[in-house]
Design goal:
Helix content is 49%, strand content 10%. It is of the alpha/beta class and 333 residues long. It has three domains: 178 residues, 3-Layer(aba) Sandwich (Glutaredoxin); 52 residues, no CATH class; 82 residues. The strands form two sheets. The protein has a five-stranded mixed sheet, with helices on both faces. It has a two-stranded parallel ribbon with strand order 1-7. Strand 3, helix 3 and strand 4 form a beta-alpha-beta unit. The chain is globular and about 60 Å long. This is Co-chaperone YbbN. GO terms for molecular function: protein-disulfide reductase activity. Keywords: Redox-active center. Belongs to the thioredoxin family.
Amino acid sequence: MSQIPPSAASLRGAVDLSSLVNRAAAPAGTPAAGGAAIPAAGGPPGPGVSVPSLLLDATDATISQVLDLSNAVPVIVELWASYADASRVLAPIMQKVVLEYGGRFVLVRVDTESNPQLTSAFQAQTVPTVAAILAGRPVALFEGAQPEEAVREVLEQVLQLAAQNGVTGSAIPADGRTGAADGADAADDAEPVEEPLPPHHAEAFDAISRGDYKGAIAEYEKAIAQSPRDQLAIAGLAQVRLLDRLDGKSLDEIRSAGAVSPGDLEAQLLVADLDVSGGHVEDAFDRILLLFPTSDQPTKDALRTRLLELFEVVGTDDVRVTAARRRLTMLLY
């Protein structure tokens, strides 16, 4: 998981929205994607700001309204794509956790396929990519699907940073959806579905939304047993295995174990998992590939297996995967 910048001085993170901020702003109340209007929330933060919902969609044209809203309430931006299984995995988790905070966050989702400017501005190399906006300033958070506990840990850090910058208001949703009990219904509202999912995929997503990663693994394995060329199931299985390995473990715990035990294969592989989950993809690949020259054959087999799985998590067409795959081939042959 990426560390959140600890001070206001570094609050801008790695994201530059200036090209969108400086363009002509859409009028307050302009409908966002999905029909919900995002209100302008300018002025000093107050105890509450009215919003249509805690779960909104935004576009290239409505980002200025999101920036205004972030003056009062921390905004979490989730960039997603319908073709990415990882987006489907993360969506119900994000929605559930945000709703649990009862208005202390607003979750804004951006479809990367139809909003190229925002995708570029947030430097989204993969989907999903998640960032925060506080007082109009963006903070990069993480890439890829995350376990529920890890998402909650990041949002706690966002709250601390928000308090440092005076963004302490609460959102009051007109739709009345303010708690964790609404989380199961939220996924259906916010996630467009073009066609029904295959049964085992649907069961896997349901299991993920409950935090039952082992159940989701079992469903994906059944899907692959029925159809060995099911690429969505293969990618989904890699994603949920990553979530399961990281579940219940803190960032400090994982990194400390990796530093203390450089010869512990599982500890090093778990750090690589953590790096991929936080968007440090090249660091993860380097960590694994650098172990090859000094490893025996069983260890090399384990390294290769994990690396190939992480390739599926990141996306096999990602340029970083292509480069790492080339290095792996050279090491193996």
